[in-house]
Design a protein that fits this description.
933 residues; alpha+beta; Cytochrome Bc1 Complex, Chain A, domain 1; 23 strands
């Protein structure tokens, strides 16, 4: 993967691992050498910590700024304030106008631009081209130093509306959102800072005042309560000077009061039943576990993996695989400073109860409390966690990348160079430590149990939204410096180098695309099959996805469980990725065991068993997943939109899972037949990214896949249906939000309009600072976010605008979406919009190839759509050649008002009359499956 020059001491490959399985033989595994992150730390006179790591592989720099404040610092009655304040940081500051933060960065070609709040901290991050790092520092410093200067009541009110919409979307209109919130409420007393979820309550969000923002900023958003990590294509000496320039003059704040909170133990089981708008009930069990980065926290992580981390985990094998009483089950340990949270959750399969599931979970917990796990079981869990850490090091920036990791180490351990000690916490765990953890922490008397059941939500009394904003004005904290008034000029643009893969064929005709990268011994390989959903017979929706799902559920020589166990023992993972024009099996592994993993992958595609009992088990699970899809209004809106657009005879019209009726009817012979026609070497391509040369890789692939037959596949022909303007309503009584979609038939992937459409979409709704998002979110506060997408597929496609808005503004929000789509072909496209769109599309492109898995995903489009090996190398030239006239032309060609389909999934009695008044065409009522009622 990444050549982490100064940053990492080269990670040694997993030496000595066998490159193949001999029937059921498991390869020897040698311990991975943990990398050394060469981080350099400095502290300015005002207390700001600077963490720097050089990595010159890509001309990109990750900037990641942590403020050491979160809900852990909040008081009762002010829940959600740290998160609300995070939103304020994206509004404006003294030298950056309203809503300009994203515009500056998108124009600069930034990626991974965001901010997040968790219980212990707030972070802000962006990854920029290396010649734009000074811009990132200018923006971050202006927010730290001058946010309050131009603070207005109107901006604050707008973000209160946005955050309340985020709460509706993330909790009240998401399946089990309020159930999970109830778990948190049961774990802690009301006065504990973790009692409320990060987002807080409507009442507290609305009760916040502008004066609270000022006090919060002056207490916590100060240099001595922050640390900035800068990772990537930098010169550390130069960066240190720039950080001193932009942050050094800021006043040191008063010392932040220490958090003096003790998390009280739970000494008696606490139980609750919560009603939610769901179809299938779910049980949650949660315990307080040891704090983050302690040895006990590592024990909890391993225990979670053993219990519910994957297909070979104890709870999955018992509840999902053997007894088949649960639709799904998982266990995780979320790590925090005042105590981590260990959670088990399981969804009941149809005709089974939560009481039945709880009893089965308790039985597995009792086994773990009384009997040590095997050495091999423990080794597999450790290897899985280490593998996850190694793959996280492929990212410099973003959430969870190296910059975020060293900031976390610095925040919690006061030591950014903690990676070796972090990994060692896991390596020293023993079977006895796992058993002892379960006995000490996972007791029935120290847990909370919440049942989420179908019923009417109780969201409490509505909290009104005031229409009048505060007239209070801002204030200055730091003295102004005239040179800050203008953004810094970028340095010379780095060369844009995008991968052109090496291509070769195996003896059986299988095409291989290889992206060679030195450094970490991480390898990703995607076995891509052309066809996907488009290859399904019209009367058998979901067939291809079902077949793909079965490939790792047992082979001629391995049972389903043996296959999964051996894959885990090799420290590898295979994930299915079905899509509309292709299906993929994506393998991730370390270099030393990827040969063994290739053998398993080859066995899956060449010798699937399609055992009847396994088919029936997977059938039940897929039917359950279809039921779960109906719980989520966002998924329902997407399902209804594509079937209303494409018509019931087009395979594109259906979700990848298919329909309940088709899944029930699909036979073993159906699965075998589509496997024979689609899963062939002639219809596939192997896309590999990692530390391999062709000479090293080809023998491994010949050995694993050389005997795979290369039969040709039949061609695919799809037909669409005539389309007319209309309005579709799906009734969701009592919904706090409406999920909206405005869709229009679109182009095939082969269209010469592809690049002009990409630029048009970026302007319209593809970027944060796009017309649609700035209108619905920033101008009106209707939504947490709005977007547009162009789905250009092999046999036709669509263009869609979407958003989730609060119910009472459904009608004006639809009006604004339709207006923006119509305006795209009428209003002039500005030079600023063109610059932003092109810079964003081209400048951020290198980040799309940052990791091995990302690279495999991007390069897989080459064989799927026959793009040519140099497609990405030439893509930027095509984008730069797009003119405003080209954008207007494609808008006029595709964004046709008489072809617009409007879909609203919401409370019909509240929204129907208003929507009819917009004149959107004939009205259809459909159910959650897209059927006309």
């Amino acid at each position: 993967m990444k050549k982490l020059l100064v940053m990492l001491v080269m990670l040694a490959a997993v030496a000595g691992g066998a490159y193949y399985y001999k029937k059921n033989q498991v390869p020897a595994i040698t311990e991975t050498v943990v990398p050394k992150i060469a981080v350099e730390k400095h502290t300015l006179a005002n207390g700001l910590d600077i963490l720097m790591v050089e990595d010159h592989r890509l001309p990109r720099v990750a900037v990641n700024l942590w403020y050491h404040v979160g809900p852990v610092n909040e008081e009762p009655g002010r829940t959600g304030f740290a998160h609300l304040f995070e939103h304020m940081m994206f509004q404006k500051s003294k030298h950056t106008p309203e809503d300009s933060y994203f515009k500056f960065l998108e124009t600069a070609g930034a990626s991974d631009v965001n901010g997040t709040t968790d219980r212990d901290r707030t972070n802000y991050f962006e990854t920029v081209p290396s010649n734009q790092v000074e811009l990132a520092l200018w923006l971050e410093s202006d927010r730290m130093g001058y946010l309050l200067d131009d603070l207005t009541g109107e901006s604050f009110k707008n973000q209160q509306d946005v955050v309340r919409n985020e709460r509706r979307q993330s909790f009240e209109n998401r399946p089990f959102g309020i159930v999970e919130e109830a778990v948190t409420h049961l774990l802690y007393p009301r006065e504990h800072p973790y009692f409320a979820d990060v987002i807080g309550s409507h009442a507290d969000i609305q009760a916040a005042q502008l004066k609270d923002v000022k006090s919060f900023f002056k207490q916590y958003y100060i240099p001595n309560n922050a640390s900035i990590a800068i990772v990537g294509d930098i010169n550390k000496a130069d960066i240190l000077k720039l950080v001193e320039k932009y942050f050094g003059s800021f006043k040191k704040g008063a010392d932040v009061p220490p958090v003096k909170v003790t998390t009280p133990p739970i000494t008696e089981e606490r139980r609750l039943v919560v009603k939610d708008r769901i179809e299938m009930p779910r049980v949650y069990m949660a315990w307080i576990a040891p704090p983050i980065y302690t040895d006990g926290d590592a024990t909890a992580d391993i225990t979670a993996n053993l219990l519910g981390g994957d297909k070979v985990s104890r709870l999955y094998k018992s509840l999902v695989y053997d007894k088949q009483i649960a639709q799904d089950v998982s266990a995780e340990n979320a790590s925090y400073s005042l105590g981590s949270v260990f959670t088990i959750q399981a969804t009941a399969a149809p005709n089974h109860t939560l009481e039945e599931i709880e009893k089965a979970i308790d039985a597995e917990l009792e086994k773990l409390r009384s009997t040590v796990p095997s050495e091999s079981e423990l080794a597999g869990a450790k290897r899985t966690i280490e593998r996850s850490i190694m793959f996280s090091l492929e990212h410099n920036g973003g959430f969870g990348g190296i910059a975020d990791r060293i900031n976390s180490y610095n925040h919690h351990m006061k030591n950014p160079d903690f990676l070796q000690q972090d990994v060692e916490r896991y390596r020293k765990q023993t079977p006895d430590s796992i058993k002892d953890f379960a006995a000490q922490y996972l007791r029935n008397s120290s847990r909370v149990v919440v049942y989420g059941e179908k019923g009417t939500q109780d969201l409490g009394a509505p909290v009104p939204t005031p229409k009048i904003a505060s007239t209070e004005v801002g204030e200055s904290v730091n003295e102004d410096e005239a040179w800050r008034a203008m953004p810094p000029m970028p340095g010379p643009a780095p060369a844009l180098v995008l991968p052109t893969p090496e291509s070769f064929q195996l003896a059986n005709g299988l095409t291989v695309l290889l992206n060679t990268r030195k450094g970490l011994p991480t390898v990703a390989a995607g076995l891509v099959f052309r066809g996907g959903v488009a290859a399904n017979p019209g009367d058998k929706p979901g067939l291809g996805g079902f077949m793909l799902d079965m490939l790792d559920e047992g082979t001629a020589t391995r049972s389903a469980m043996q296959f999964s166990e051996q894959l885990k023992e090799a420290g590898a993972e295979i994930s299915e990725s079905p899509a509309r024009d292709a299906s993929s099996l994506v393998l991730t592994a370390t270099r030393g065991t990827v040969g063994a993993a290739f053998d398993l992958l080859a066995d899956a595609v060449m010798h699937p068993a399609f055992a009847k009992e396994e088919v029936e088990r997977v059938r039940k699970r897929r039917l359950g997943e279809l039921v779960q899809m109906k719980e989520d209004p966002a998924q329902v809106s997407d399902i209804v939109t594509i079937i209303a657009l494409n018509g019931k005879d087009n395979p594109y019209a259906y979700p990848i899972l298919g329909t309940a009726a088709s899944v029930r009817e699909l036979s073993v012979d159906d699965l075998k037949n589509i496997w024979k026609t689609q899963i062939t070497a002639a219809n596939a391509a192997m896309v590999v990214s990692g530390d391999f040369t062709k000479d090293e890789l080809q023998p491994l692939l010949e050995k694993s896949f050389g005997k795979w037959p290369g039969a040709e596949t039949p061609p695919i022909t799809l037909t669409g249906v005539p389309f007319t303007r209309r309005l579709v309503i799906v009734d969701t009584p009592g919904a706090p939000q409406s999920q909206l979609r405005v869709a229009i038939p679109g182009p095939m992937r082969s269209t010469p309009d592809y690049e002009p459409l990409a630029v048009m979409n970026e302007i319209l709704g593809g970027a944060f600072s796009s017309r649609v998002n700035l209108n619905l979110r920033e101008q009106h506060g209707y939504t947490y976010g709005a977007y547009t997408r162009v789905r250009a597929l092999a046999h036709g496609g669509w263009i869609v605008a979407g958003s989730g808005v609060r119910t009472d503004v459904t009608v004006p929000a639809v009006g604004e979406l339709v207006k923006e789509l119509t305006r795209m072909s009428e209003a002039p496209v500005t030079e600023q919009e063109m610059t932003l769109a092109k810079s964003s599309l081209v400048g951020s492109l290198p980040s799309a190839f940052e990791t091995t898995s990302d690279t495999v995903g991007m390069l897989s489009d080459i064989p799927i759509y026959n793009l040519g090996l140099t497609y990405y190398a030439e893509y930027s030239k095509k984008v730069e050649a797009v003119t405003p006239e080209n954008v207007k032309d494609v808008a006029k060609k595709y964004l046709l008002p008489d072809k617009m389909l409007v879909v609203s999934v919401g409370d019909r009695k509240v929204i129907e009359d208003g929507l009819k008044g917009l004149g959107l065409g004939d009205v259809e009522l459909r159910d959650a499956d897209g059927n006309v009622k």
